[in-house]
Each structure stands twice: as structure tokens, then as C-alpha cells.
Design goal:
Blueprint: E1 2-4, H1 10-13, E2 31-33, E3 37-48, E4 58-69, E5 73-76, E6 79-86, E7 90-98, E8 149-159, E9 162-171, E10 179-191, E11 194-205, H2 207-214, H3 222-227, E12 233-245, E13 250-260, H4 263-266, E14 275-286
Length: 287
């Protein structure tokens, strides 16, 4: 028995793994045998743009992946899950995940494992460009944006037209008391040695999530803490991964992701971009 394995760039590019029975495994590179570990690494070069003001982009050069699927329990790139039911065209899991927003603030967030920030520190939010010189518009050093795990449920619907993922998770440790949801459609096909995966993603973040990461606290700026009021919003994205099979263990790899950040988030004075994009080109090896 096999299960579909998440893309090798799942940890860095935020491409959630899927799981289903072996009938849907298009190639041996997509599947992991139940009861076995799957370990791999991608080496190359890429970059993830950082929408935060005065903070540079994040280079991508080494991306690990590690996964294990049992009969019910599974581990995939830092996330734990439990399969409640698995049918030919439908599956339902309990899962954990972590927010991608914190990665913009902290080097060692799980979303930035093996990534290196070539930018000023997170405290580099000075006076806003072209803003008046009034002291009350200055943003002081930012307070902590703590890590938390999200827990909830995900459902996969499998069809000849692709895979639809529906997910809802909530803060498990009462850090921000927020919730996130995702609607993702993905489709993959193979042409000789080429394997192409395409996806469109809609990520919803509750008001509490937006406020915790992008809101301004009174000690950071009394002015902006009153001016910016957080609201829930939807990020919209597209992803593409192309792999060329060199050998049984080596692939050439190209991955890109483009995210249009919700207007409710880009209204924050911490941001000066309304998009975030990621690209990576290199070689992937599976042990």
C-alpha cells in the first residue's frame, strides 16, 4: 500500500502534502510506501520575497523533506496528522500546521528552515517613506510574534480533474486565538520524464491572525495602533512545480509560487508590497 507524497519543496514553499491510496500515484516519485520513511533534499538557488517594509528577500538554497505515513498516523515536513477515513474519491484527516506569516519576521521559523535572510533585522522598521516627521508616526522595535501550532481538519476530494483540498485550523496554544482556512485545487500530469504540478490556492486568515502578525501594538506605535484596524482576509496564490527525472534518485527541479496578499493585510504599515513570490531551481535527491 502506498500514499501520495507531498512535493519536495513542501516545507519551504508551503505546498501541503496530500495522502491517498496507491491507485492515484502517477509515478514512483509521488508515492511513499506505508510504514517507510521518505527523506530527501533539494539543492539549488531561489528566493522568497518579503513583503515587510525595510526587510530584504530570503534566499533559498537547501530544502529538506522528511515524511512517514503509517496506517493512520503520519508526519510530513513538521506536521502531524491522523487519517479518519480514506475512500477512493475522498479522505478526511485531523492535522496540525503552522502559520506562514511568522516566517517574514523570524529567521528560524519552520517555514524558513535552511533559509538565510540577507536583510536588516526585524527591528529595522524605521520612519515610513515619505511620511511626515511627526514623532507619533514612528514605529519602534517590534514586539514578539510567537510561534504556535494550528490544529484542525482537512478533506481531499479526488477526481479526474484534479485534487481539491479543504482545510480549517485553529490556534492550539492560545497565542493569537485565530483561525485559518484553505481551498486548494491541484492537478499533475507526466510527459515522458517530465512531471508537472499546478495549483491554485485561496488562504483565509481570521481577524485575530491578521491583527497578531500585522497589527501595531501601542508600545510599537501609539499612532498606528489606532490607525490600522485588522480584518480577516483572503490571500490568493498560484503554484507550479516541474520535475525532470534524471535517475531513480535524482530530479532536476523548478518551482515557483505567486501570492497576492489580502488587501486587509497590505493595509498594515508594516508592509510595502502586496505580493510575495518564491522561485527555486536546482536538483532534488531522494535517499
Amino acid at each position: 500500500m502506498y500514499r501520495i507524497l507531498g512535493l519536495l519543496l513542501a516545507a519551504s514553499l508551503s505546498l501541503p502534502a496530500t495522502a491517498q491510496l496507491d491507485e492515484s500515484c502517477s509515478t514512483k516519485h509521488d508515492c511513499i510506501e506505508v510504514g517507510n520513511w521518505d527523506v530527501g533534499v533539494a539543492i539549488g538557488w531561489g528566493q522568497k520575497t518579503n513583503p515587510l517594509k525595510d526587510v530584504g528577500d530570503i534566499p533559498v538554497f537547501l530544502i529538506p523533506t522528511i515524511a512517514y505515513y503509517g496506517e493512520n498516523w503520519f508526519f510530513d515536513n513538521g506536521n502531524l496528522g491522523y487519517s479518519l477515513t480514506e475512500q477512493a474519491h475522498f479522505s478526511l484527516n485531523l492535522v496540525t500546521s503552522y502559520s506562514l506569516d511568522r516566517a517574514y519576521f523570524y529567521r528560524w521559523d519552520p517555514s524558513n528552515i535552511f533559509l538565510e535572510r540577507n536583510s536588516p533585522s526585524r527591528t529595522g522598521f524605521g520612519r515610513l517613506p515619505n511620511a511626515p516627521a511627526e514623532p507619533d508616526m514612528h514605529i519602534n522595535d517590534l514586539g514578539s510574534r510567537n510561534f504556535t501550532l494550528l490544529g484542525g481538519a482537512e478533506a481531499f476530494i479526488y477526481s479526474p480533474l484534479g485534487i481539491l483540498r479543504l482545510a480549517y485550523t485553529h490556534d492550539m496554544f492560545n497565542v493569537h486565538h485565530g483561525s485559518e482556512a484553505q481551498i486548494k485545487w491541484s492537478y499533475g500530469w507526466q510527459l515522458n520524464r517530465w512531471i508537472i504540478d499546478l495549483a491554485f490556492v485561496f488562504d483565509w486568515k481570521s481577524q485575530n491572525v491578521v491583527h497578531y502578525y500585522y497589527g501595531i501594538r501601542p508600545e510599537e506605535s501609539a499612532y498606528w495602533s489606532q490607525q490600522y484596524q485588522a480584518h480577516s482576509g483572503w490571500d490568493k496564490g498560484a503554484e507550479m512545480t516541474a520535475r525532470y527525472e534524471l535517475t531513480n534518485t535524482w530530479d532536476l527541479l523548478l518551482a515557483v509560487r505567486y501570492t497576492l496578499i489580502a488587501d486587509e493585510i497590505t493595509a498594515s504599515p508594516l508592509l510595502d508590497k502586496d505580493v510575495s513570490s518564491t522561485y527555486f531551481i536546482g536538483a532534488a535527491y531522494r535517499f
